[in-house]
Amino acid sequence: MKGMGQMMKQAQQLQARMIKMQAELADRTVESAVGGGMIKVIANGRHQVVSIRIEKEVVNPEDVEMLQDLILAAVNDALAKSQEMVASEMGKLTGGLNLPGLM
């Protein structure tokens, strides 16, 4: 029974560290740039887009589809980088354990 108590204590400590890590990651950001840097998207550790910057030179009313494709690519890349950042940091914390629902 003593071993079970120790495991519960360790689980609680891990949970507390994970909550702290999630709060820290929420403030960290990643950036994606596409089109030679003409479009930049910044996402945070909550997998939210926090900024999109579009250089005016890339805005062409005759080719709106290209602009849409570039924005979509930048947003998807920024969100993927955000997920990778969170997974990497949580992996360090959990020692590589696969704990569903944490990220």
Topology overview:
Elements: H1 2-27, E1 29-34, E2 39-44, E3 49-54, H2 64-94
Antiparallel strand pairs: 1-2, 2-3
User: What is the H level of CATH, i.e. the homologous superfamily?
Assistant: Nucleoid-associated protein YbaB-like domain
Largest sheet: 3 strands, antiparallel
The overall pLDDT, averaged over residues, is 88
Number of separate structural domains: 1
Mind telling me the CATH class? Alpha Beta
**Element pattern in H and E:** HEEEH
Q: What are the low-pLDDT stretches, counting only 5+ consecutive residues below 50?
A: none
What's the number of helices?
Answer: 2
The 3D shape can be described as rod-shaped
What share of residues are in beta strands? Answer: 15-25%
By CATH, the architecture is named 2-Layer Sandwich
Share of residues in helices = 55-70%
CATH topology grouping: Ybab, Chain: A
Beta strand count: 3
Kindly report the spatial arrangement of strands forming the biggest sheet. 1-2-3
Q: What separation lies between the terminal Cα atoms?
A: 31 Å
Radius of gyration: 19 Å
Task: Please summarize what this structure is.
With 103 residues, this protein is of the alpha+beta class.
Structure description:
- The chain has a single domain (2-94), classed as Ybab, Chain: A (2-Layer Sandwich).
- Helices cover 55% and strands 17% of the residues.
- The protein contains 2 helices and 3 strands.
- The chain has helices at 2-27, 64-94; strands spanning 29-34, 39-44, 49-54.
- Strands 1-2-3 form a 3-stranded antiparallel β-sheet.
- 11% of the residues are buried.
- The model has no long low-confidence stretch (mean pLDDT 88).
